[in-house]
Design a protein that fits this description.
alpha+beta; single chain; 33% helix; elongated; YefM-like fold; 3 strands
Length: 81
């Protein structure tokens, strides 16, 4: 594992970014001690797994779903009780 010095990193940032974008982690530090790692965003960003139709066929909507509510329920919403 090669550790790039801070001075080298400042001087050659564009080349280091290209290396990181190509998938190579670039270790940056001082005196051989790693203080930062430059990596491609694809390493850090994980796309959530989406499963379409997970509940298909398991839920039903009643025929009277959009029917008017009873008067006592409407009154409770309006604070008339």
């Amino acid at each position: 594992m090669e550790v790039v010095s801070m001075h080298q990193a400042k001087s050659h940032l564009s080349q280091l970014v290209k290396r990181a974008a190509a998938g190579e982690p670039v270790y940056i530090g001082a005196y051989g001690h790693v203080e930062a790692v430059l990596v491609s965003p694809s390493v850090l960003i994980r796309k959530p797994h989406k499963q379409i139709g997970l509940l298909a066929g398991k839920l039903t909507v009643p025929d009277d779903f959009d029917a008017s509510l009873p008067d006592e329920v409407l009154a409770s919403f309006e604070g008339d009780l």
